[in-house]
Amino acid sequence: MLDTTKGIEVKVENNPFRKGSVMIFWGWNHAKYSKSDIHFKGNGYDFQLDNVVANDRQTPFDFGTYFNPGSITIPQVNYRITYFPKDNFGITLGMDHMKYVMDQNQTVNFNGHIDDPKYAAMVNNGKVDLSGNDFLTFEHTDGLNYINIGAQKYHNVLDKKNIDIFLSYGAGIGALLPKSNVQLMGNERSDRFHLAGFGLDTRAAVSVVALKHIVLQAEGKLGYINMPDIKTTLNNKPDKASQDFVYAQFNFGIGYTFNTKKYN
């Protein structure tokens, strides 16, 4: 533009992450979990399974599942809204809908006691074989829901007319509201939402902004989850499990920024 007071050409900037901007985001994730010690406690039992292996459960890609409004929450998804109180600094409220599935094909160390002789007999030499499904099935598949608030700092590394590239880093904290699908030693299967614990994460991302509004983002997260109150039986019994673990998550998705303004 021309500055008429000085008669010189002045470059007009249009920062997609300027103060007052808002970004909405939808994406999909893949996660890896560390081994976890899971402690089970209830009437007639108190024991721990050591170094339990679990993985996520990806929904096979199908356009109707991933993009149909009635089924888009079935895959492992991330959604969030970010407000920028300062230039290139965002505060985010989001949900990471992950899935956590205990591998059945494993034998793990057992420490503790079980009063029921049927299930106590499944423990041999301090180990229990989980492969038969009779002793335990354990999943957070609808899902391992991490409701979090975070903060990110953005740095512009490429500024062209219709494309910008930003690098960002930040951290988050939040609550775990899993829908845990658990069947333990013949009890009725528990499959319900319950506030089970908390999580922490650090995050870094690459964001490509096209036409100052459309955002393609790839993000990595390292996090810690601690759930001391996982419901393991159907009725309101004192039975519960507890576990903590670390995870690595990669997500990719698309966002849109609005309410951006030009610098004068």
What would your notes on this structure say?
The protein has 264 residues and is mainly beta. The chain has one domain (2-258): Porin (Beta Barrel), CATH 2.40.160. The protein is built from 2 helices and 18 strands. It has helices spanning 63-67, 117-120; strands at residues 2-3, 8-9, 22-33, 36-42, 45-52, 54-55, 77-86, 89-102, 107-114, 123-124, 127-129, 136-159, 163-176, 179-184, 190-193, 197-210, 214-231, 240-258. An 8-stranded antiparallel beta barrel has the order 3-7-8-12-13-16-17-18. A two-stranded antiparallel sheet has the order 1-2. Strand 16 and strand 17 (214-231) form a beta hairpin. The chain is elongated and about 70 Å long. Residues 8-12 have low confidence and may be disordered.
Secondary structure: elements and pairs:
Elements: E1 2-3, E2 8-9, E3 22-33, E4 36-42, E5 45-52, E6 54-55, H1 63-67, E7 77-86, E8 89-102, E9 107-114, H2 117-120, E10 123-124, E11 127-129, E12 136-159, E13 163-176, E14 179-184, E15 190-193, E16 197-210, E17 214-231, E18 240-258
